[in-house]
Amino acid sequence: MKTIAYYISDYGFGHVTRSTALIRQLLQCDDTIHIIVNHSYGLDFLRKALVSDRVSFRERETDIGFFLKEGSIQPDRERLRAEYEKYIAAKPSFIKEEIAFLQSQRVDAVVSDIFPWPFEAAKAVGLPGIGVSNFTWYTAYLDLLTEEELTPLKEAYQCMSAFIEIEPCVEPTWADNVVPHSFFARAIDAEEVNRIRQNADPTGTKQLIYFGLGMKIDAGRLDELPLWSSDNCHFIVAWNTDVDGPNITKIPRDYLETQNYVAAADLAISKPGWSTVAEALTAQVPLLLVEREGMREDAQTIAYLRERQLCHTVRWEQLREFKIDDALLQSTKAQQRIEVQQEARDIAVDILRLIN
């Protein structure tokens, strides 16, 4: 039995949910592998979502991600720099610990989305180190930190033996073996989608609007947005969103397959986080994305989608005065659609090929 050490970024649930999709497919494609999940932020979710005697879990802090200004979705550069300095200072000891872990557990390969240090550890002990992502933290920080400050990240990513590059990806050539792939998400349950729609809108007369800014965003007084008084709309929001009302459905805190709520919507309003975008695209739900400054990954995602007429956008400042009307709904329904079938399975097959 081969053992894969699978590392998942700690920044938000997007990396967690897409890694869940891939790990499920890896287990289905090869019944001789064992996967050790290395993560901390969403570990409780992962334990519930990946119930298998071939999956074990190791609580391990990974990436620091971004830090946002209070009451905003804009990046806090000063705090990022302070936390990044501590993060880099801990790198040598972390890699030393990971080398010992990989050897003691007789790991055969490393997969990471997209925590950099495991690639150096894998290379040090002669193991494949496969990256899976639409970005790296090196490029994500290019507009926020200096090139010199980013050198440790650059050196780590150059240790990848292969990079599964997920659209929309604008990255240096980190590895000799670069494998391109499209968007993917966890499988949608059509019966569950119908149940969600029926519960949220029993009469079938409302427009269902998914509204998600991400689990790590404190956007201030969301309950004061005029958005919630949009005519003929019923909103689906995360359990921790600070808004209530008769036209609000909150996703239960313990509900795992949140992609079904996205699929139930007539429109998804979201920051341009990759996983929510992927869930909407695979379910063919129109997108209205909230733009923010200083986030390179956001800009790349929006540019990619705009070029293909796959989204509309609204600036964060506009959202504070924004309401949904018939003209917007009609224009978003005219967005192009893409067909994505079994992409997660295809990626899993490529990971197994690269390992073997």
List the helices and strands and how they pair.
Layout: E1 2-8, H1 14-29, E2 33-39, H2 43-49, E3 55-59, H3 77-89, H4 91-104, E4 109-113, H5 117-124, E5 129-133, H6 137-140, H7 151-157, E6 162-166, E7 177-181, H8 190-200, E8 207-212, E9 233-237, E10 248-250, H9 259-263, E11 267-270, H10 274-282, E12 287-291, H11 296-307, E13 312-315, H12 316-319, H13 326-333, H14 343-355
Parallel strand pairs: 1-2, 1-4, 2-3, 4-5, 5-6, 6-7, 8-9, 8-11, 9-10, 11-12, 12-13
List keywords for this structure.
356 residues; alpha/beta; Rossmann fold; seven-stranded parallel beta sheet; six-stranded parallel beta sheet; globular
Question: How is this structure best summarized?
Answer:
The protein has 14 helices and 13 strands. With 356 residues, it is α/β, with parallel strands linked by helices.
Classification by helices and strands: alpha/beta
Report the radius of gyration as a whole number of Å: 20 Å
Mean pLDDT, to the nearest integer, reads 95
The number of distinct structural domains comes to 2
